[in-house]
Design goal:
Elements: H1 8-18, H2 20-29, H3 33-40, H4 51-56, H5 61-84, H6 95-104, H7 124-130, H8 133-136, H9 154-166, E1 170-174, H10 177-189, E2 195-199, H11 204-213, E3 216-220, E4 224-225, E5 230-231, H12 236-248, E6 255-259, E7 266-267, H13 270-279, E8 284-287, E9 311-314, E10 327-331, H14 338-348, H15 355-370, H16 377-390, E11 397-398, E12 409-410, E13 414-418, H17 426-437, E14 443-444, E15 448-452, H18 459-470, H19 472-475, H20 481-488, H21 503-508, E16 511-515, H22 516-519, E17 529-530, H23 546-558, E18 562-563, E19 572-576
Parallel strand pairs: 2-3, 2-6, 6-8, 8-9
Antiparallel strand pairs: 1-10, 4-5, 7-12, 9-10, 11-13, 13-15, 14-15, 16-19, 17-18
Domain Orn/Lys/Arg decarboxylases family 1 pyridoxal-P attachment site: 94-398
Protein name: Arginine decarboxylase
GO molecular function: carboxy-lyase activity
Length: 578
């Protein structure tokens, strides 16, 4: 597709989008040009081999020549395989996938990066694992492959097709995951000193976005179920209350940020939240990392875009089928400045984006677009089948809306199970399922395990999951200590927060390390959270409470990986020296 072949209206829209590159270049000239040049021209450092490595790299000359010959033949054979597998009509491929295929098939004398040179120097340890094809298609920003920050060709076309499928006015491809999309969305809407309304159980990327933007949080405490030890979404009334509380102080939030669905699949009423915020002229940003599939089946909840959100960031690599780390940012309406989003994305994303990641986004969009109304039929059938069978197993609970009845829906492809009646924590049950049955879950909590059903789920794996769960009662000790611990936890670990410094000031404040006992009542200097799901229990700038400390020590004792703490044993904590 060329620009001249587009209808006049679409041509004007395309030209408007392409103007982003002009704005970006102007911003660079206004202060970053010298620094940008010095950074971009800085050579990469090389790593020296150890003596042992050198000895393995110095075989006899004959063997060395044979080895190089075999590698070159392998690359040549792989390229010939690609050529022989040509599709009769190149246009049938998604635009960026087709462009990458055509570029890789060129008989080029390559004097460009990356150093493996289209697989010719690919590390043998990795080619033995994944073959040569990923290296052959691991190409840089060649002219025919377009430029991520000023797209005019296949990237632009791929993004436009994604926007049409997902129902946005504009879509950007992300190679830094949903993390960089959330950071860009908050930076594009919030200036230093402005307030943002967000749930306290937001992903850590929202916290880092406040450090980058200088935004000040106005937290909403999400719904919480103590038996499950799971936080839910937020309600329209909570959002309205937060806006009015800021109004009473003479302030207006620059944005409202919502996570929907949550990691456990709990969906907030985004339609009412959007209507409420838009009445105040406030943009709604939605972290829809776990919901790129929503709206593509009648039995699924509506997507955030369908419910009126202004900026939506999705992890296309989660339930959909792009490569890990690839995501999309969608914009709708005209409340948010799209040029500011462009500038923020260029600031945050790599200047050497992976075309394998970008092409995988294009391919995932095409896969979904082939049968958008029925593509999830099998996955939904398997999810319902598994849920029905598991509900019949004594001692195992299945999360449903009864625990979070103030919310409209739970993602049917997210299956969360509780084991307290068996005297098992989520970590203990997960260990048994993994060790004895080869069942690997998506998310482990103190009292539950979450399993993600997707397009690749098969019936045999479903049956193995159900079979393993049926054997859990005989594997457990039937101790009731877990159940007692659940009963004693009446509130979320972050329910009683007190903010002393905003995240940005706390991030740059002087710090010192103290013992965990000394830290109580001090200002936290670290972002500490069990991961997954990446929800912070302590955020820089908050007063350290006994409840938060006890929670962290408890989940670590049960087997959680606690990230962000410089002392992984949690015997000490970094505090702000204020």
């Amino acid at each position: 597709m060329t620009l001249s072949s587009l209808p006049t209206k679409q041509k004007d829209e395309t030209k408007r989008r392409m103007s982003c590159s002009t704005l970006l270049n102007q911003s660079l000239q206004l202060g970053f040009a010298k620094k940008w040049t010095s950074v971009s021209l800085r050579p990469r450092t090389s790593t020296c081999c150890t003596c042992q490595e050198r000895s393995t790299l110095e075989p006899k000359k004959k063997r060395d020549r044979e080895s190089r010959g075999e590698k070159n033949r392998s690359v040549t054979e792989d390229k010939s395989l690609i050529s022989r597998s040509r599709i009769s009509q190149q246009d049938s491929l998604p635009p960026l996938v087709g462009a990458l295929k055509a570029s890789a098939e060129k008989n080029a004398a390559s004097f460009h990066f990356p150093g493996h040179n289209r697989g010719r120097a690919a590390p043998s340890s990795l080619t033995q694992l994944i073959g040569f094809r990923p290296f052959i298609h691991d190409l840089p920003e060649l002219p025919e492959l377009d430029n991520l920050f000023s797209p005019e060709g296949p990237i632009l076309e791929a993004q436009m097709q994604a926007a049409k499928l997902f129902g946005s006015s504009e879509t950007w491809f992300l190679v830094g995951g949903t993390t960089c999309g959330i950071q860009a969305a908050i930076m594009a809407t919030c200036s230093p000193g402005e307030h943002i309304v967000l749930p306290r159980n937001s992903h850590i990327s929202a916290i880092s976005a406040m450090v980058l933007s200088g935004a000040i949080p106005k937290y909403i405490m999400p719904g919480y179920d103590c038996k499950w030890d799971i936080a839910g979404g937020v309600t329209p009334s909570q959002v309205g209350k937060a806006i009015k509380e800021l109004e009473m102080d003479g302030k207006k939030p620059a944005a409202v940020f919502i996570t929907s669905p949550t990691y456990h699949g709990i969906c907030s009423n985004l339609s009412e939240i959007s209507q409420l915020c838009h009445a105040y002229g406030i943009p709604v940003i939605v972290d829809e990392a776990h919901g790129a599939h929503l709206g593509f089946h009648p039995q699924m909840p509506h997507s955030a875009l369908k419910q009126g959100a202004d900026v939506v960031v999705q992890s296309t690599h989660k339930v959909l089928c792009s490569l890990t780390q690839s995501s999309m940012l969608h914009m709708s309406g005209n409340i948010v400045d799209r040029d500011r989003i462009c500038r923020c994305l260029q600031t945050l994303q790599s200047t050497s984006p992976s075309y394998l990641l970008l092409a995988s986004l294009d391919a995932a969009r095409a896969q979904l677009g082939e049968n958008p109304g029925t593509v999830f039929n099998k996955a939904l059938e398997l999810a319902i089948e598994a849920s029905t069978l598991i509900k019949k197993i004594p001692g195992i609970s299945v999360l449903d809306l009864a625990s979070f009845n103030e919310f409209p829906a739970i993602d049917p492809l997210r299956l969360t199970l509780g084991f307290w009646s068996l005297g098992l924590s989520g970590y203990e049950a997960d260990d048994i399922l993994d060790r004895d049955h080869g069942v690997i879950s998506e998310l482990v909590g103190t009292q539950s395990i979450t399993f993600a059903i997707n397009l690749g789920t098969c019936r045999e794996h479903n049956q193995r999951l159900v079979s393993g769960l049926k054997k859990l009662p005989t594997s457990s000790s039937h101790s009731k200590t877990t159940e007692k611990r659940v009963e004693s936890r009446e509130h979320a670990p972050f329910n009683d927060i007190c903010i002393s410094l905003n995240p940005r000031d706390a991030f740059f404040a002087n710090k010192r390390r103290v013992s965990i006992r000394e830290s109580l009542g001090k200002v936290c200097g670290e972002l500490i959270c069990p991961y997954p799901p990446g929800i912070a229990v302590m955020i820089p700038g908050e007063i350290i409470t006994e409840r938060a400390l006890n929670y962290l020590l408890d989940v670590r004792r049960k087997g959680a990986v606690v990230t962000g703490a410089s002392d992984s044993h949690l015997s000490s904590i970094v505090i702000c020296d204020v």
